[in-house]
Write a structure and sequence with these properties.
By secondary structure, the protein is an alpha/beta fold. The chain has 2 domains: 127 residues, ornithine cyclodeaminase, domain 1; 173 residues, NAD(P)-binding Rossmann-like Domain (Rossmann fold, 3-Layer(aba) Sandwich). It is built from 12 helices and 17 strands. A hairpin with a 3-residue loop joins strand 3 and strand 4. The protein is globular. The two termini are 23 Å apart. The relative contact order is 0.17. The protein binds nicotinamide-adenine-dinucleotide. Nicotinamide-adenine-dinucleotide binds next to helix 3 and strand 11.
Length: 380
């Protein structure tokens, strides 16, 4: 049999600790910049992707979702949940991991943590949109919702867009105090001014950009029309599943609304409140120069972000490539190695069972291994 495509046999694993180490080694601003560059680049290749809205299982307190996407070489998917009451149980609201596979063979090449990565890629995506939609020289941003994602948004807008001052509000004053403590202790935020406010309406007064990143599985109205000022850009990130919104419908009516992938945002975004013919523009059109973004200093623009699979594809590429360059990651025994690929039964036929038992870690202390080479991360 002639082999034409050589695929590595080992799946590589990047643990939470590996990715934390990678981000610490490279610095958060570098990772935000790298992911934003990949996301922008991939938006420009929009038509190269096989896209679909994510698949979600909803329960009263949350959602568990799968987000697949592929180009002609690489397939990725992310597993992610959203459970706003999780912090009461000592768990984050959002947890995620992802897989990157070879399209030609279906071989899974990488399994990676994506909880931390999701926060970085979400903030990077917000900046990619704001660069195209917010007024030039935007310097002040309101940040409504100061939970797990919030520092990443603050640092992304500070380093990648030039935001110098953020106005903070959260219904939980402890969340705002945590954010201020974290950023005050961070040399990467030493030039970022911060102030806490008693309400969302006070926090948004006079700002150039309003970011909403709250978590509540309800149709909340955190931003109402009276809070909108001419020229404001809204980065609406927390309304991202059916029955979970943040922005009053009249705000959408008064704004020019941009989305990641329209079929998904119609189901999950603040857009779910609007009629099916309410006009929106997919962001890639603006980035590719096909459609204007902001057209005047007075226009109100809104990025109705829900998080799209392509952003995780871009983030996984960044994580894989930087881990490869840093020699990080471990080979994982996920797919059994077969001497004859048509003879799966060889792995469990009685003789193989016996030799597997005698070679098991419990009896020999040797690692269980089916011949997959142990190597650092391999490029797809
Ligand atoms: N669009 C995307 O790509 C994307 C990606 C990741 C997360 N998210 C969403 O972002 C949101 C935040 O995620 P997180 O991990 O930071 O959650 P989190 O639970 O850690 O923080 C959410 C914060 O929102 C606050 N909050 C709730 N209701 C509020 C209100 N009415 N006004 C002000 N503050 C309020 C909570 O007190 C909490 O501190 C979630 O809804 C999540 O689903 C979106």
């Amino acid at each position: 049999m002639k082999t034409t495509h050589v695929t590595p046999l080992a799946t590589q694993f990047l643990s939470a600790q590996d990715v934390i180490g990678l981000v610490q080694r490279l610095g958060l601003p570098h990772c935000l910049r790298g992911m934003a560059a990949n996301i922008h680049q991939d938006f420009l290749r929009w038509k190269a992707f096989d896209k679909s809205p994510r698949v979600a299982c909803h329960s009263p307190d949350g959602a568990i979702e799968l987000m697949p996407i592929a180009d002609d070489k690489t397939f990725t998917f992310k597993y992610v949940n959203g459970h706003p009451k999780n912090p009461q149980h000592g768990l984050p609201t959002v947890m995620a991991f992802g897989v990157l596979s070879d399209v030609a063979t279906g071989m899974p090449l990488l399994i990676s943590e994506l909880t931390l990565t999701t926060a970085i890629r979400t903030a990077a995506t917000s900046v990619v949109a704001a660069r195209a939609l917010a007024r030039d020289n935007s310097r002040v941003m309101a940040l409504i919702g100061n939970g797990a994602q919030a520092e990443f948004q603050a640092l992304a807008f500070h380093h990648l867009l030039g935001i110098e001052e953020i106005h903070l509000f959260d219904t939980d004053v402890e969340a705002t105090a945590k954010l201020m403590r974290n950023l005050q202790a961070n040399p990467d935020a030493q030039h970022l001014r911060m102030a806490a406010y008693a309400s969302a309406s006070e926090a948004v007064r006079g700002v150039d950009i309003t970011t909403t990143i709250t978590a509540d599985k309800t149709n909340a109205t955190i931003i109402t029309p009276d809070m909108i000022e001419p020229g404001m850009h809204l980065n609406a990130v927390g309304g991202d599943c059916p029955g979970k919104t943040e922005i009053h419908p009249d705000v959408l009516r008064a704004a020019k609304v941009f989305v990641e992938y329209e079929p998904q945002t119609r189901i999950e975004g603040d857009l779910q409140q609007m009629p099916a013919d309410f006009a929106v523009t997919e962001l890639w059109n603006v980035l590719a120069g096909k459609t204007p973004g902001r057209e005047s200093e007075h226009e109100v623009t809104m990025f109705d972000s829900v998080g799209f699979a392509m952003e995780d594809f871009s983030a996984l590429r960044f994580i894989r490539d930087t881990a490869l360059a840093q020699g990080m990651g471990q080979a994982m025994d996920l797919i059994p190695h077969l001497a004859d690929p048509k003879d799966l039964y060889q792995l469990v036929k009685p003789a193989a069972r016996k030799s597997a038992r005698s070679a098991s870690p419990a009896t020999t202390n040797a690692p269980a291994h089916h011949g997959a080479p142990s190597a650092a991360i391999v490029a797809a």
